[in-house]
Amino acid sequence: MDPSSQPEPEVGADLRSALEAAGWRLTRQRAAVYDQLRQAHYHPSAEDLYRRVKVVVPSISLATVYKALDALVASGLATRLVAANGSARYDARSDHHYHLRCLRSGVVEDVPTPFDPDLIAKIDPDLGPKLADKGFHVTGYRLELIGFFEESIPGSETGETS
Ligand SMILES: [Zn+2]
Question: Does the domain formed by 3-88 have CATH 3.30.230.10?
Answer without folding.
Answer: no
